[in-house]
Design brief:
Elements (H helix, E strand, L loop, with lengths): L4 H13 L10 E7 L4 E5 L12 H11 L5 E8 L9 H9 L6 E6 L2 E7 H4 L8
Parallel strand pairs: 3-4
Antiparallel strand pairs: 1-2, 1-3, 4-5
């Protein structure tokens, strides 16, 4: 088993508890691991102007980039209200920006990893500038 996965799930669940979701109540947490093994977590947060809200995956990516890291090895996504919560389209594109086709997205729910999917499967025909 992946030695990082347990800690990643723990951090994603912990981040999810901090989600700021006064309108929807839809809390999401994420934890990503860089190719060097660094872990970064994030939660979603809403704004009264919904387009200004941020997803958990985006929050984790922002933490990673702020720390000077740019390559995601894998990510765990969990949601309070769903047993399976894949990243939205915008987050899929954001993840692609910092991933290879082999980057794995783990979808956690109901107390276990429900699916582990390569990012290339989640977002085929990716848009990339390079």
């Amino acid at each position: 088993m992946n030695p990082y996965l347990f800690e990643m799930v723990k951090l994603a669940l912990s981040a999810m508890k901090n989600a700021y979701v006064p309108s929807s109540g839809f809390a999401v947490g994420a934890c990503l691991r860089t190719v060097g093994g660094e872990l970064f977590s994030g939660c979603n947060f809403e704004n009264a102007s919904f387009p200004l809200s941020l997803c958990a995956e985006t929050s984790a990516i922002a933490s990673m980039v702020s720390a000077g890291y740019y390559q995601i090895q894998e990510i765990v996504v969990t949601a309070k209200m769903l047993s399976l919560c894949p990243p939205c389209g915008g987050c899929r594109q954001r993840l692609v920006e910092f991933s290879t086709n082999d980057t794995i997205v783990h979808l956690y729910g109901d107390g276990k990893i429900q699916e582990s999917i390569p990012i290339a499967t989640l977002l085929p025909h990716q848009f990339q500038l390079t």
